[in-house]
Amino acid sequence: MIVLAVIWVTKPGHEEEAAKIFRILTAESRKEPGCLMYIVHRHHSEPARFFIYEQYTDDAALEAHRNSPHFLEYARKQLPLHGERMQGDLYEPIA
Q: Which residues 6+ apart lie within 8 Å of 5 measured at CB?
């Protein structure tokens, strides 16, 4: 299994539009055969800050996610209009 943890911050006033896009991206990503978990969290006291937690069966599943039509449309085209990815880290479970 591979885990991706991402921190994403919106531009001021773009929080709700980003949240709408994240909801669509979440629904579509969860349909992927190699996606085990995809959850977007919103910071408790900083509404412009989002944390995305993703689990995939393997590197190939993550690569398939990154090349999926919904990822290319929402993560690559639409979300950057509303903010930016601040951090993205890959993890593996320690069993």
A: 51, 52, 53, 54, 87, 88, 89, 91
How far apart are alpha carbons 56 and 64 in whole angstroms? Answer: 10
By C-alpha distance, which of 67, 39, 44, 50 is closest to 16? 50
Q: Is the whole-model pTM more than 0.85?
A: yes
Q: Domain holding 84: CATH number?
A: 3.30.70.100
Alpha helix (H) residue ranges in the chain: 15-29, 59-66, 69-70
> Could you give the angle at the alpha carbon of 56 between the alpha carbons of 84 and 9, nearest 5°?
15
Structure tokens at 55: 């689990």
Domain for residue 80, yes or no? yes
* Residue pLDDT, tens place only, 43-58: 999 999 999 999 999 9
Q: Which domain holds residue 10?
A: 2-45+59-91
